[in-house]
Amino acid sequence: xxxxxxxxxxxxxxxxxxxxxxxxxxxxxxxxxxxxxxxxxxxxxxxxxxxxxxxxxxxxxxxxxxxxxxxxxxxxxxxxxxxxxxxxxxxxxxxxxxx
Length: 99
Fold this sequence. Notes:
The protein is mainly beta and 99 residues long. The chain is 12% helix and 39% strand. The protein has a seven-stranded antiparallel sheet.
């Protein structure tokens, strides 16, 4: 089972969607992004064995935010941040668990 704070090294560039959250009354938006090889991701929640995906965020959250989230989205007054959801089957193919 994956635990919050567990570190994952990105071993191959990942093209995915980042989910942006706004003020509480707004719907989350998604934007296409590319997570660069060499990035470190942190698991954000407990995940059961039978789940197929997991939530995470980059260890260098604010640095990668500039790369992952378009400026036009970041500058919106209601923008509150972002998170990532990745398939578990990326572990061993695009991600490596760090000990």
